[in-house]
Amino acid sequence: MSNVHLIDHPLVQHKLTLMRRKDASTNSFRRLLNEMSLLMAYEVTRDMPMQDIEIETPLETMQAKVIDGKKLVFVSILRAGNGILDGMLSVVPGARVGHIGLYRDPKTLTAVEYYFKMPTHMPERDVIVVDPMLATGNSAIAAVDRLKEIGPKSIKFVCLLTCPEGIAALQRAHPDVPIYTAAIDRELNEHGYILPGLGDAGDRIFGTQ
Ligand code: URA
Predict the structure, then answer these.
(1) Over the stretch 37-76, which tens digit does the pLDDT of each residue have?
(2) Distance between CA 36 and CA 39 in Å, rounded?
(3) Would you say the CB of residue 200 lies under 6 angstroms from ligand 1?
(4) Whole-model pTM?
(5) What sections of the chain are H helices per DSSP?
């Protein structure tokens, strides 16, 4: 699958297995998600542009690398996307954060927007959209549709888990958006849940039902 980056680092895979277990507590689910997000942030930011600046070490002057350009934006698809934000921000603490509120209509499974707030200067910024589950793809597509209206420099999509149906839908709508994921599960069920999956990510993060 082109434009899909499977993050198969052993630490990521191990933590994902612990998260999938139905007996994982809310506390450990949230902690593991935070740790996984941090590790995934390394992969997704691997190609960030760099520039050389002159600095003084205690011994001499040197040209050293720093990240170039305007601050990156993490865009969280509410509410489950917020579970990924803290881990990502611990690696990129200066990043800006945008939020998109979308809920899934339980009958049609389509995404309905109720909130949209982005930082300024979006056309000069690279965006990383975060949502733990890429399932039907409807929320991801709706989020990317909205973001493209304000035209950021680039858009990437990060999730913990996806399935062939979710990847196909997002790639059909937005072939230019790379997908970063820790696993591609077997399939989507008739309720729009990923199998074997990990259940409802929002409920597991926030301890709701
Ligand atoms: N959203 C979830 O939280 N879990 C799924 O399996 C699919 C969508």
Answers:
(1) 999 999 999 999 999 999 999 999 999 999 887 889 999 9
(2) 5
(3) yes
(4) 0.93
(5) 10-20, 26-44, 82-91, 138-150, 164-173, 201-206
| Residue 59 tokens, joined | 């011994």
Query: Has residue 61 been placed in a domain?
Result: no
CATH code of residue 32: 3.40.50.2020
CB-CB neighbours of 99 under 10 Å:
17
At 68-124, the pLDDT tens digits run: 878 899 999 999 999 999 999 999 999 999 999 988 787 887 888 999 999 999 999
* Residue 55 resides in a domain: no
| Å from CA of 155 to ligand 1 middle | 22
- Closest C-alpha residue for ligand 1 atom 4: 200
Q: How many domains does the chain have?
A: 1
